[in-house]
Predict the 3D structure of the following.
Amino acid sequence: MEERKTALVTGASRGIGKAVANRLVQEGYHVILVSHSSYSDLLKITEELNGGKEEPVARCVSCDVGNPDEVRKLFSSIRRLDLLVNNAGIAYIGLLQEMSDEDWNRILSTNLSSVFYTSRSAIPLFLHQEERGSIINISSVWGNVGASCEAAYSATKGGVNALTHALAKELAPSGIPVNAIACGCVDTVMNAQLNAEEKQELCEEIPAGRFATPDEIAEALMHLVHAPAYLTGQIITVDGGWI
């Protein structure tokens, strides 16, 4: 029997990460689900994915991917990796001058430093495999254009986009594609803080007239998974024609 490919998905306990993990299992991957703040949810998802199957297709790990030591420990148990999906992220809405040092460091480590730490650990695995892996980063349209009262979030996602471009050039000679998906408004817990009126106003701005579903982002990601390695260094915007 052919060995299953392995994917690691950060921020996999809900929303986009959960949808991506589900889709990857459907595509025949063994998935390592990673989360830090919602580990009980992660356990439940893992049990659902493994339910009724002869062999486990998923395992979960509690890991703060913004902590380099925890990321090293996570990767020390991985022998094969075909896909790294950097999805972990948090938001901060508020005036920049009111943001604390702690808030800044937290969003920077979760949204941007985590991508560096996981990619740094994944690359040696990819290079030692005959079939090279790939990296897909989940970004945001605010990384492209910025958003008022979300300066820190926009900065981290802009950093993810720049890192994606640069790392793709670095790894292209090795046949390892690196791409990102810049999401628009997605119906996730992160956007649940918006009230009904705010959501309606946003929907009126979006030509598609609605938020994306996490499953639609997962579908877009699968197109990148199946794309040739020559498609690299791209920030694919999925926003219903909004930006």
Q: What stands out?
A: The first strand starts at residue 6 and ends at 10. Residues 19 and 216 are 9 Å apart (CA to CA).
